Automatic annotation (TrEMBL):
Pfam families: TsaD. One of its GO terms (biological process) is tRNA threonylcarbamoyladenosine modification. This is Peptidase M22 glycoprotease. SUPFAM superfamilies: Actin-like ATPase domain. InterPro entries: ATPase_NBD, Gcp-like_dom, T6A_TsaB. It comes from the Bacteria. GO terms for molecular function: peptidase activity. PANTHER family: TRNA N6-ADENOSINE THREONYLCARBAMOYLTRANSFERASE, TRNA THREONYLCARBAMOYLADENOSINE BIOSYNTHESIS PROTEIN TSAB. It comes from Mycoavidus cysteinexigens. Transmembrane segments: none annotated. GO terms for cellular component: cytosol.
Amino acid sequence: MVQEVFAEAKLNLSACTALAFGAGPGSFTGLRTATGVVQGLAFALQVPVVPVSTLLACAQAARARDAALTRVLAVLDARMHEVYWAQFELDLETHNWRTVQPVTLTASDAINFPDAPFTLAGNAAELLSAQLARAPHLVSIDSLALPHAAAIATLGLSALRAGQVVSAEDAMPVYIRNKVAFTTAERLARAAHA
């Protein structure tokens, strides 16, 4: 599949000088797959790796869709009634993102909203609908601003230029929690209380 993507783009894999990947947070299987692929390719090509936060990629994707954005609350559904979230602000001089609130995992009703105008980016707006109604500084919601390849490539290039790289063996997924699903007993108990 990697070769097909490069062929479609009329690029040669051996021309790569670095590889960027969405390091997380996100689904365990997706993160492990992305990490394994990038480690294998980077090892074979002897190139450095640039891990990119998936939440930062959501912020970058939102900015690509609206160049006026400077403050983004990136939120991804973490399942199990929880969300991954972080808050970013764009430095207008350097055009680099600054982390205002680092990556956090909380219940979907426990997010701290910015106290200045912001855009919500990511796939969790529906989970937050009740809280968003009480977020006075919410300017817009961009549910299509997801950690796609274009955003990861843009951020990866910036990080590469800043020397923020790791070796293939040091490329690791960012896991925020260890538990990935409710047990049968937990699901039954939740259903009984619903």
